[in-house]
Specification:
The structure is a homodimer.
Chain A (H helix, E strand, L loop, with lengths): L1 E4 L6 H4 L7 H18 L1 H12 L10 H10 L2 H19 L6 E6 L2 E7 L4 E5 L8 H14 L3 E5 L10 H9 L4 E3 L3 H10 L9 E3 L4 H10 L5 E2 L7 E6 L5 H12 L6 E6 L2 H16 L4 H9 L2 E4 L3 H11 L3 E5 L3 H6 L6 E7 L6 E4 L2
Parallel strand pairs in A: 1-11, 4-5, 4-7, 5-6, 7-8, 9-10, 9-12, 10-11
Antiparallel strand pairs in A: 2-3, 12-14
């Protein structure tokens, strides 16, 4: 990992650059696929599924039989874990419901605000190297609680034209109406324009690699809303000398293994912690099933020492991480001064060190 | 105005196309200006201010003297009206504050959500053909209530290098920290990258023409957040035979006069209302100070008859208007079935016909 000690302010911008492929290359590809899917529909989707996923498919829609078969292939233990996670996520999102806000600003002028379900939402679930069923739980659960009428899901097929049964089980459990075996740019294009098979959606949610991210940004030009440009995945951990280096290393690796273009950064006010985390990352990497993937993204990643928490916070705000974990003696400081995120979701674990995590919105 | 009776479903997409210039032309211009402002800072901003606004400026920052002078140039009557509007807007946004949401999902796992101010926000206020001081009120007031630390504003200078005093008065009243005489693409680029004069912002808010809209979308690729792609301005009014044609015509014209690329659409389940509104628009256009501007955007606009409210609602959801006014005997129907908007802001006027308005978010 790259270690940097007290980098100068003028070097921060360069230092914090995301490891994304040249934007222009990606954009050309995304534009081309969008216009082809727009004009040719399913046949273009089929062409790019063959090209990128290596499988010729006549039909993209997952059948009832496939979903039923998936239920038989997931272990009871995993099913129970998924149901428990769903119930926890439901508790959290149920608590978000807010009443209508009504104000009479002037006699005769009644104003109000209300939150309402978007009728048609498309979820994108990456599936290239890992079945992200947790993402289905986190996207489809609030969509159901909000009352969205039509929830469809796109996820790339494997080389045999199949979807991981855990994905299908979780989608069915969470009330997803339709699942399509479509990945990457062609999935976002299909949800944007609609095809013979895929319905046109009002808003697209979900993470993805840099191609998916650029595709989602392009979708907004065609009046489709998106949640946020959410990929490639990134994590910043701030840790002082009170943190547990093994936990910090695990957190960094858990994000690093998402994909080779993920980025993880450790900011620390302790030189010892930087050294300790570096050693722990090396140790834990050895026993990681997704070692190769994590190693490639660890190569993009940085351990940065800053001499005080004010400077540490400045560089964190300069970067504006997608995910942010705080493991310090003064967690409140890092939470209060986190200025780029307007809607923060935190949790605190009482097992082991106190940790907090925030998502950028 | 173009009148259409019961257009077929397969014609809707074409019919509802926005009157935007070819996207590719705009994008090239926006990309070029962004990379020049990024590498050359103020000197690039100066070049494009000369080119687009026709004025060579050595300094973009509005001085304290200019702001003080502006206070003397705004009539007491207008000042009182602006203060009243500010106080109404404050009442509305104060009511939006929500408490922290805390949930313990599992023993030992405390989760919470909180809304927090974004530290650095940039407001874009169009000024080409009309000083939109109302937009300052609507953007800076909630930013202040939220607690944003740094609020800066960009607005284009006139041919003499000046800003309308009402803009300066309103900005000062609303606690805007700095005002820059910069408009269009170069303003969004300056807020995105920062220059010697303009600070780099975390989020950019505000409407604009199609160039500003494309520029804001480009800003998101450089990790700057935006409120929404908000321009060119558009309005859809739905009216049945209980509506007042003069009010409907005024609403349509009020949006049409925003700019020549604005679009207004009337959806009606009454053929008589279509005819009556068309006559009223012609009558009212004659006495409109901004007649020429409104006329050009009225040429882009459509009066569409649909035979029942279900069909009317379907076409409204297909379009997803930025602003939506409802003047019918069954307003609740049109509000309840408005599916593309997740956060709706409505108001109801008790003078005259009941009207409701929603903003797409």
């Amino acid at each position: 990992m790259n270690k940097l000690y007290n980098p100068k302010r003028e070097e921060w911008e360069k230092l914090l650059q995301r490891p994304t492929q040249a934007l222009e290359d990606i954009e050309q590809t995304v534009n081309d696929i969008f216009s082809e899917v727009r004009s040719k529909g399913d046949s273009a989707v089929s062409k790019y599924t063959d090209l990128f996923d290596g499988i010729k498919l006549d039909s993209f829609k997952v059948t009832t039989e496939e979903i039923e078969a998936a239920f038989g292939k997931v272990s009871s233990e995993l099913k129970n874990a998924i149901q428990l996670a769903k119930s926890n996520i439901e508790k959290f999102h149920e608590a978000q419901k807010t009443p209508k806000v009504e104000v009479t600003t002037t006699k005769g002028v009644e104003c109000w605000q209300e939150k309402r379900p978007i009728q048609k939402v498309g979820l994108y679930i990456p599936g290239g190297s890992a079945p992200l069923f947790s993402t289905i739980l986190m996207l489809a659960t609030p969509a159901n609680i909000a009352g969205c009428k039509e929830i469809v899901l796109c996820t790339p097929p494997d080389k045999n034209g199949e979807i991981n049964p855990v994905i299908l089980y979780t989608a069915a459990l969470c009330g997803v109406d339709k699942v399509f075996k479509i990945g990457g740019i062609q999935a976002i294009a299909a949800l944007t324009f609609g095809t013979e098979t895929v319905p046109k959606m009002y808003k697209i949610f979900g993470p993805g690699n840099q191609f998916v991210t650029v595709a989602k940004q392009l979708a907004t030009k065609f009046h489709v809303a998106i949640d946020m440009p959410a990929g490639p995945s990134e994590l910043l951990v701030v840790a002082d000398d009170t943190a547990d280096a093994a936990f910090v290393a695990s957190d960094l690796l858990s994000q690093a293994e998402h994909g080779p273009d993920s980025q993880v950064i450790l900011i620390s006010t302790s030189e010892q912690m930087i050294e300790a985390v570096e050693r722990e990352v090396e140790l834990q990497l050895e026993v990681l099933p997704r070692k190769e993937m994590a190693q490639r993204s660890i190569a993009n990643s940085k351990l940065i020492y800053l001499e005080n928490k004010e400077l540490a916070m400045e560089i964190i705000n300069e970067y504006g991480p997608e995910h942010f974990i705080v493991c310090t003696a003064d967690n409140d400081f890092y939470i209060e001064k986190n200025y780029k995120c307007w809607l923060c979701i935190y949790w605190k674990l009482h097992t082991g060190k106190c940790r907090r995590l925030c998502f950028r919105y």
